[in-house]
């Protein structure tokens, strides 16, 4: 097979996708398309209400709007290509498009790690120090917090994408995956990837270990404060303001820990092996989680449900 690297004129990589069975591919196409449309609708509505409804102009909903925008960007960077792959017999992607996809997906994932930590801090201040909340979480504070989340995620993505695209890819250019995910591409390198593995391990500590530790400590203080509230109604209301964020954190980080627990390389025979779980976990992270986020934040949040209802009422009234 012709040697492939990022400066070579070959067409690019071949994506194997989920299955070779045409019947299963049609089922996957319909399921992923429906979930993608739900993601666009649910997160789009959340962004709209957080902008249009003045009652939602608070730090918590500002972060939520960023989270929804991030979910839309992440899924849009990969899902259309995945859907197209179900319809075409030869699923190819150019080197440059693969690099862009790796950069975007890693940026969104790293940014969400930091953003969820920022949201945990917001809940900590709101519950543990409510009198100082307007000062600590002023607009001059929460806007730079959100911007820094995007900047940190983008910087980490530039580093890892650059390290990956500089590797020589010789011989096998078949990616046994749904899309150009960094770990799957690394397995095709024909040189030692120790530096990539070490840098990925450091990134795991920074974007998985540190935020999880910070969020865990925040929730220890939050729970301790809530339990000291004398009335049952007060405790219920306090818990309800955190339950959505906590649920999203568990789903998001749980999936990431499974996906990035160990950067895998090729086996001794050079085979590019990957079981179905290695494909389904990124699929769950990339499609199911963004679909659940707006549902989780809407079901138990009266302010969001009221804002959505008011928006729908206004649309119906104008018609």
TrEMBL record:
Its main location: membrane. It is a multi-pass membrane protein. Gene3D superfamilies: Rhodopsin 7-helix transmembrane proteins. It holds the Pfam family 7tm_4. It comes from the Eukaryota. The chain crosses the membrane at residues 27-49, 61-83, 103-121, 141-159, 205-227, 239-260, 280-299. Residues 42-297 form the G-protein coupled receptors family 1 profile domain. It is found in: Cell membrane. CDD domains: 7tmA_OR13-like. Keywords: Cell membrane, G-protein coupled receptor, Membrane, Olfaction, Receptor, Sensory transduction, Transducer, Transmembrane, Transmembrane helix. Putative odorant or sperm cell receptor. Belongs to the G-protein coupled receptor 1 family. This is Olfactory receptor.
């Amino acid at each position: 097979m012709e040697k492939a690297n990022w400066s070579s004129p070959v067409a690019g990589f071949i994506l194997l996708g989920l299955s070779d069975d045409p019947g299963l591919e049609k089922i996957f196409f319909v399921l992923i398309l429906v979930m993608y449309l739900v993601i666009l609708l649910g997160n789009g509505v959340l962004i709209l209400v957080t902008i249009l409804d003045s009652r939602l102009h608070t730090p918590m909903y500002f972060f939520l709007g960023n989270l929804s925008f991030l979910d839309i960007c992440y899924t849009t960077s990969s899902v259309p290509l995945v859907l197209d792959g179900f319809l075409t017999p030869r699923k190819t992607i150019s080197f440059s498009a693969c690099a862009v996809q790796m950069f975007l997906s890693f940026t969104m994932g790293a940014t969400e790690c930091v953003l969820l930590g920022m949201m945990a801090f917001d809940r900590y201040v709101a519950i543990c120090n409510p009198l100082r909340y307007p000062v600590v979480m002023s607009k001059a504070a929460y806007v730079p917090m959100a911007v820094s989340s995007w900047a940190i995620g983008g910087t980490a993505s530039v580093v890892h994408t650059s390290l990956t695209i500089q590797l020589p890819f010789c011989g096998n250019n078949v990616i046994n995956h749904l899309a150009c995910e960094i770990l799957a591409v690394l397995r095709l390198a024909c040189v030692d990837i120790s530096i990539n593995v070490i840098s990925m391990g450091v990134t795991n500590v920074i974007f998985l270990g540190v935020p999880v530790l910070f969020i865990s400590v925040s929730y220890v203080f939050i729970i301790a404060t809530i339990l000291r509230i004398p009335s049952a109604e007060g405790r219920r209301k306090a818990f309800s303001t955190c339950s959505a964020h906590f649920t999203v954190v568990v789903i998001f980080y749980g999936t990431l820990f499974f996906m990035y627990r160990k950067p895998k390389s090729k086996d001794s025979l050079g085979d590019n092996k990957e079981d179905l779980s290695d494909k389904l976990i990124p699929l769950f992270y990339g499609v199911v989680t963004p679909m659940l986020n707006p549902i989780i934040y809407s079901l138990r949040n009266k302010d969001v449900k009221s804002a959505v209802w008011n928006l729908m009422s206004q649309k119906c009234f104008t018609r």
